Amino acid sequence: MAEPMTEAGPVALRTSPLAHLEERMRAAAVPGARGVTLTERPFLTMVNLRVGPGSEAADRIEHTLGARLPRRCGDTTSAGPHTVVWLGPDEWLVLSSAEGAVLTAELRAALGPAPGSAVDVSANRTTLELSGPSSRQVLEKGCPLDLHPRALGPGRAVSTTVGPVAVLLWQVDDAPTYRLFPRSSFADYLGRWLIDAMEEFRGPEVP
């Protein structure tokens, strides 16, 4: 099939790392009280941000985002289209539905001459969303963290592994819904691992 054309020439079509598993993920969905679903949410903007916490540059960046930079491991803050995830004492990941180049330029302008960086890493990872009453049990098959609500709840995001794959794991709400951010090169493995882990819940519900 010919590529779409514009006056400037052919347009490159974006293909997500898990486009080839879309049908399998849809077929793996489990309805009902034991339900769990798996979907990819591709092309989310991700900007890696480094700046001195508490600095004037950090204040300018917080003003640009409309959200404070979280200060503790596991914390996140959100405002409008942006969610900011703590990665380290002076490092954060900004997740956003805003256009990546625009957001990165705005953060670099806010950073100014201060030490630090704002780098668009959107192509480095993809986003898997696992949701439903059984989603925690699916993750517990291969995640070493304590995922019980007493330890991990809505708004928390931590670096961990699921199976052998390193991910950033964010619990979005108490459905529960989780978003997993693997490196794009490991997304296929993780997607297949999760599909296999979901199979158990397709059996008859226990009264």
TrEMBL record:
The organism of origin for this protein: Streptomyces lomondensis
Gene name, Swiss-Prot/TrEMBL: soxG
Q: Which domain of life is it from?
A: Bacteria
Question: By what name is this protein known?
Answer: Sarcosine oxidase subunit gamma
What taxonomic classification does the UniProt entry list for its organism? Bacteria, Bacillati, Actinomycetota, Actinomycetes, Kitasatosporales
Q: Name one Pfam family in it.
A: SoxG
